[in-house]
Specification:
By secondary structure, this protein is an alpha+beta fold. Helix content is 26%, strand content 38%. It contains three helices and nine strands, in the order H-H-E-E-E-E-E-E-E-E-E-H. The chain has helices at residues 2-18, 21-25, 167-197; strands spanning 31-44, 54-61, 76-82, 85-94, 98-107, 115-116, 121-130, 136-143, 153-160. Strands 3-2-5-7-8 form a five-stranded antiparallel beta sheet, with no helix packed on it. Strands 4-1-9-6 form a four-stranded mixed beta sheet, with no helix packed on it. It is elongated and about 65 Å long.
């Protein structure tokens, strides 16, 4: 009888050792966020073919241990947006409580002629806390560089092309009309002057 009890205890111990760590210790608590970003690209007049409509942005962490999206390069995560589109950055996954800070801005290496670049900078604060059910809760707050809380991250870029239409032609016609009028007046004045010089 004692031998059977010892065998049962030994089997239970071996089974416990062979269980995966997460089943023994409990699943790791996690919470994640996605950061929505909107790019608005506007053209004034005509946009030439093959003109650039792609712009680069950077998410930069302020704390060295702040979680980042996959494919980040150290403290920075770079991504591109083309034309007018909306993109979600992330997920960024958190495994413990804390407050994490990030900066999101447009990265312009060299400004191109006729382009307008949005130079707004957004500060992102992520608050991670324990919930009553034992999980983690997360809240994200975004402010602009003026310190005002905003509902969305939006960048507005633009391109001003050459004017099209009849605006220049209309101006030319107006100028020609002015010259014709001046010539007519000059002709009348010259005619009177010649008439006055003729002998009576």
């Amino acid at each position: 009888m004692k031998m059977e009890i010892k065998k049962l205890i030994l089997c239970a111990a071996v089974s416990l050792i062979l269980l995966p760590a997460e089943e023994v210790l409990g699943a790791e608590q996690t919470a994640s966020v996605m950061i929505p970003v909107v790019q608005q690209f506007e053209t004034r007049n005509k946009l030439p073919d093959k003109r650039n409509q792609t712009f680069r942005y950077e998410l930069i962490r302020e704390e060295q241990d702040a979680p980042m999206p996959d494919e980040s390069d150290g403290d920075r995560y770079a991504f591109d947006m083309k034309g007018s589109e909306k993109k979600e950055i992330g997920p960024i996954t958190y495994t413990r409580t804390g407050i994490w800070h990030y900066t999101l801005k447009q990265s312009v290496q060299k400004e191109e002629k006729d382009y307008d670049y949005d130079k707004q900078t957004y500060a992102i604060s992520v608050y991670v806390e324990n919930l009553a059910d034992g999980g983690l809760g997360v809240q994200m707050i975004v402010t602009n560089k003026e310190g005002n809380k905003v509902d969305e991250i939006r960048f507005k870029n633009g391109y001003t092309g050459a004017k099209t239409g009849n605006a220049a032609r209309t101006g030319d016609v107006s100028d020609i009309g002015l010259w014709i009028t001046l010539l007519a007046v000059s002709g009348v004045v010259a005619g009177k002057a010649v008439h006055n010089k003729l002998p009576a």
